[in-house]
Amino acid sequence: MGAVFAVLLAMGAAALYAVSSSVQALEARRTPRSTALRVSLIVRLVRRPVWLAGAAAGTIAWPMQAGALALGSVGLVQPSLGFGLIVLLVLGATLLHERLGARELGGVLAIAAAIVVLGWAAPHETGRYSSAGALVVVTGAIAFAAAPALLRHLDLAAGLPTSIAAGLGWAWLGLATSLLDVSIANHHWLDAFLWALAVGATSWAALLAEMTSLQTWPATRAVPIAFGLEMIVPAVLDPILAQAPPPHPFAFGAALVVAAGGALVLGTSPVVARAVER
Fold first, then answer.
1. How far apart are the C-alpha atoms of 20 and 275, rounded to whole Å?
2. Who has the most CB within 10 Å: 23, 159, 229, 263?
């Protein structure tokens, strides 16, 4: 039953994240390209009520994601965030009167089927991270927190690098949030404080990278990369880092492949793109 509630919470968080991305992307594209990967980009955006409304939706979504990760494993919760692409599809179809075709319906069915299979095949809960596993997450959080500055230094403030940085940043947010949940459950308050810092730093960097990617690249390219990495990377790494192999590894791997395919199909759909770029 916990897995069902985990998926429902993850889907609720995904819906809010989708609305947040759609609203924030609108404002991000109205900012000068000179602000790419700079703090000034966020400084400009926080002065805009529409962008702040999107940020509020994303802020509300994170505790829901954390609650989902407290009830279910990363391998179940993170792929369920693909529901956000379905929400964007619905927004495009209802608000913008876009027509849905076999491509869009196929993507919806792929993600829905993957989530159902993962409810059975994914690890039931996040396992106990080894010291090496926790170190990997810490190292990744530090690296992704520094990614915007590094990309700017390397003159890589373009769509592909920033989309990858955003997707990996949000992916690492899922891993760090899971460890934050575990620390709170075990009353390890110092660890919880440190993981909260990792969550905050990773979120900031991922947000800056995402806003830059949507500022500089079409949504049909930025969205599938960011969503796909956020969904799949933590689900693949968590069973290894947490020493919690899935009970049905073949079905688990197949479901992740199907989920990634569904994310690619929906993320590159013009209907989804127009919901983000409207």
1. 12
2. 263
Nearest to 61 by CA among 105, 16, 20, 116: 16
Label residue 180 exposed, middle or buried (CB < 10 Å: 0-12, 13-18, 19+): buried
Helix 49-71 with 2-28: angle, nearest 10 deg: 160
- At 104, give phi and psi (nearest 5°): -65, -45
Angle value at C-alpha 220, between 215 and 225, nearest 5 degrees: 85
Return the amino acid letter for 96.
Answer: L
Q: Which amino acid is at 81?
A: L
pTM of the model: 0.88
Sequence spans of domains, the chain:
2-277
What's the average model confidence in pLDDT over 60-66?
94
- Torsional class of 187: left (φ above 0), alpha (ψ -120 to 50), beta (otherwise): left
The pLDDT of 182-196, averaged and rounded, is 93
